[in-house]
Amino acid sequence: MKKFLDRVLGTALLPALSFVMAFVISGFVIAFSDSKVLKLASSPGKFITTALSTVGNAYLALFQGSVYDPNLAHGHGFLQGLYPLSETVVTATPLILTGLAVALAFQSGLFNIGAQGQFIFGAVAASYVGFHFTFTPVLHVALALIAGVLSAAIWGGIVGILKARTGAHEVIVTIMMNYIAGFFILWILKTTTFLRHGRIDPIAPEVNPSAQLPHLAGNNFRLHAGILIALAAAYFVWWLLNRTTIGFRFRAVGANAAAAKTAGISVGYVTIATMALCGALAGLGGAVHVLGSEYALTADIAGNFGFDAITVALLGRAKPLGTVFAALLFGALRTGGRTMQSNTTTPLDIVLVIQALIVLFIAAPTLVRYIFRIKNLKTQEALASKGWNG
Amino acid sequence: MSLELKGITKSFGSLLANDSIDLSVGDGEILAILGENGAGKSTLMNIVYGLLQPDAGEIRVNGQLVSINEPSDALAAGIGMVHQHFMLIPVFTVLENIVLGHEATSKLGKLDLTSARAKLLALAKDFGFVIDPDALVESLPVGVQQRVEILKALMYDAKVLILDEPTAVLTPQETDELLEVIRRLRTQGTSIIFISHKLREVKAIANRISVIRRGKVVGSAEPSASQEELASLMVGRPVNLAPDKTPHTIGEVILHVKDLTISDATGRALVKDVSFDVRGGEVLAIAGVQGNGQSELAQSIINLEPHVVGSMTLEGRELVGMSVHQSLHEGIAFIPESRELDGLISSFSIADNLILDTHREKPYAKGITLSPREVFAEAEVKAKEFDIRAQSIKDPASSLSGGNKQKVVLARELSRPVKLLVASQPTRGLDVGSIEFVHERILAERDAGRAVLLFSTELDEVLALADRIAVMYAGKILAIVDSGVTREKLGLLMAGVVE
Amino acid sequence: MKNLIAMKSFTATQRRQTWLHIVLFIIALFELKAFGFGNPANAKTTFGFTLAKEWVLIHTWIIGSATGSYLFSIIALIAAVVAITLIALKKRAGLATAVTGLALMMGFLCWAAAGKFIPLTGMLQGSLLLAVPLVFGSMSGLLSERSGVINIAIEGQLLAGAFASGVVASLTHKSALGLLVAPLAGALISLLLATFAIKFSVDQVILGFVLNVLVIGLTDFLYKKLLIPYQTTWNSGPSFSRIEIPLIGKLPIIGPIFFNQTLIVYLMYLIVVIITYSLFKTKWGLRTRAVGEHPTAADSVGIDVNKLRFRNVLIAGLVSGLGGAYFTIGSTGSFSKEMTSGAGFIALAALIFGKWTPMGAVSAALLFGFADNLQGTLSIIGVSIPSEFMLMVPYIATIIAVSGLVGRVRAPKADGIHYSRGGSH
Predict the structure, then answer these.
(1) Between the CA of residue B115 and those of B100, B102, B111, B265, C277, what are the distances in Å?
(2) For chain C, which has fewer Cβ within 10 Å, the N-terminal or C-terminal residue?
(3) CATH dotted code for C121-417
(4) Which member of C206, C217, C396 has the closest CB to residue A349?
């Protein structure tokens, strides 16, 4: 038991410290950009208390907006107070799936920056099947999900094929394909098939009710069955990596492609399969997002899910369980950030700063070790993509 | 100029690489440092050259205490080094490589190569080297590249020249020429430190021999000492330099290679029209200097090379065009040239490394699911059989010593049904104990009637193990000779000379 | 056809290049059929060559749209065949490829602008302007990557430069001060990149990505918190106006394109010249290329690898930061959210497309600038191709480039690999 505690503490300490540092630094940013605070620069005492209260209020709003809000609970019961938490889960759901898309690629030694584009293709295909056809409910959901997964798998698979066949670096290709996907969704929303009747702004019709994912906690909460799909996907990725021969090959290629090749593992096959699977995961994210919470495809459907996925996977150390926790955390930041933005003067975008800083510190354990004077801070093997020639 | 080392100590983690080493080389003297792979020679020389910092100890030049923290300090003190892996930039010209770090500039910071060019040409002429200053280094043969390295050191007035395993990439003839150059340098007053594990060369060139074992100077010897004496000093016990080889019975042709040509991505042929047979119960050694197409030929046998034309059959079945996986399962065991890069996945456990090739077979896999229990059980068995010394088979392969890493590779490759063993530089970088183990295993395969194809650049190894020897030069097999051939004849063949 | 049959003995590169040109050939055939013969019979396309007051040689060039498409498609067909032959003979086919592409483009324009006016000079001038941040960005990437540090943070450096110059120029009402702080802001991001990559050996691709997120987050945050509410003080800076260079500014075509531009464009010329010269002709350049190719060798002759890398990454930040100033004081003067909109990534693409050489990167940046501008021009004159597809062009071109269709693209050998003695790779 003690050993287990040690392990948990050991692995959680670095993320926890990084978390604290990121919040402290972001606190300074919030305080020093606040006009109220800046006006008090001449009187140090007031300056400090105002600064602290500004930051405190912002972070309080961040918490209330993402976990529990007593104001909502007032008169409606404790459960209603947890409404923010349910919103956090709604935001985290697609993030878990895109995060897995990046994490799985890391395990095979690939850096998938393309979750954004893959997400878009999943969302577009699921939306199309969702609004264009009518089937019986369960079947319709399944078909829409499958359409999203397949089209995104092809989109992701292209990257794998290009890398396996020509050696084109996946980082460059996925960056470029994100832009292409971005223009693609702009275009497709202008076509007569997708443009909602009577609208000129880029928005598709809502998916038919038969294709919508069921709500899990009644209609007062947006919490939908997508989270179960996301958790199942995380378990699937864990099982695939650790309990199957396919995952064994993925990890072998990721750890040392040359040795894997020499032992008869086809690196090209692994690359293509990985990228297609990653595409499928991110595409599932897009599909779940459309069918579960948005219902209508818009140009901005992907938001930041594909890009946040990278910080999520990095924070989760490219492990399935870690990715789930990281996605919940960043989902909470996003959700709480919205409340923070509307209730205080602090813009949502500070959340990006916090995310970047957390990942930055986690990537540099030497620095954290130095700042906190900790000698034996547990660190795991650094995640690395392999440069342009790798 | 004289160089003196006192009490040099350096440890990496728990490994004591250098343990209070004392050495000195006098004016115009050639000191040979003899030691096994991993004895700590390179660490010592990297300390002298400023690439590593010692934990303790001092370095004196001409009796003066010097502090060498950077290679530039060593260069300033008159210490030059020819590294085992050349410190040349392949895409630069010879001249650019020579001036790097000592560039002269004219106005606007423009590089001025004129004086360096003149000095280089004069120096080359002095030694009778033919060198084109504007040739790209990557286009030069290794022997010439080494001369560029030597000239680079001399250009900046090295008075003590360290040569780290300089003959590893040379033919016997080139080795003789190098030794000649070294003697000439000595007569000009340069002090030389010659690092090697090859007894023959050390005896031929040294004025004095210091022997290092496990990070300690264990003694010194005169060049007149016998090879056996030097070997036992180096290893710490009497060594049998030639493994016991029993007479063998030759079987049927197992591997038949006909008109095999291998090209690189740009279409340049690296192996040209090679044909040979390997029979059951014999070791065919492919000898030759590094970089004459052996690596590509070895890799092509399990189809690791993409651009292959020709035919290769294993007991009549065509191998060319198969996947690596298929080739291995046709009955080929493959020991790659580099265990670190190609043989093992260092972050994987020993057990996982043992199933890299067979993970999809029973009992390890059922369908696509892996069974960790079976993997560990089998690993325990193999670890025992091949004497793999590790705390646990769940430890990562990176925790193993070089010899034990090679045992993991051997254990993996020999546990499939094998008809042919392809071993590429199987003892490179290993200590003598491990070398003996590997040699015994190779001969055991031969005695069990399997065909063995051995690629080695070490002449001693070739002569000790081979039944027949094929010599490769510039991508071709120049001749296939009997194991009774003389060293001189082999040396000439390795240099491309056919009588 | 014989060439095609002989393709079996080709190298991989030759084969890919041949395929590329076969594709170009087919496009030219298509153009010949659809645009040449399919054009309205009497329509004419007008190309404009003058912008303002340059010494005029030609005002406009009017060509029958069908004739133009027909003519240029045939030129493209011939050039493609020449290129394929040259490739088969293992000779350089760059010029032939360029002619093929150019002729295809002209043929396309003749069709697309049938009955309309294309301000060619204006379009090229606009292309150059759009290429400015790409050139700065790719030069920044070049400085960093030739010495062995991957720079994915170009986007962040540009954005930081844009933000800092816009804000400072607005607060002080001096565009010169804005120009001064822009490089410093870029260098600040570089300082983080260099520190974490070199001192703490963080993976450079991941690091660059995270730094971009950081800068986007910070600028978005400050934009909303300060620049929007206090727009008059924080976000209404002055901007540079065009300066016409005497004499050469009046040259026809070339003058308005190159020599009637803002200060930032002239600084760009200067920087490109300095970098090209320094990289190949100076001691610094030799050492920079050495540490990017084989750091251990450089170390062994007394070059402090990590110090040189650190310095070069900082310089790279100065350059892209300066490029960021283009977005604010170089155009309208005000900053807007994420206004670099991916220019840093296209700059990276230009660097790779240009095979990590200064001239290659600049050419690629100009090409991408042209594609961007063409899209704008065509949507203004009303062409039936959705602008989204035109906008995809640079990205598709980059994918084609890194897939090896335009020859072998090779990064500096040690690019992205942290250097420490005793070698951790």
Answers:
(1) 14, 12, 11, 39, 21
(2) N
(3) 1.10.3470
(4) C217
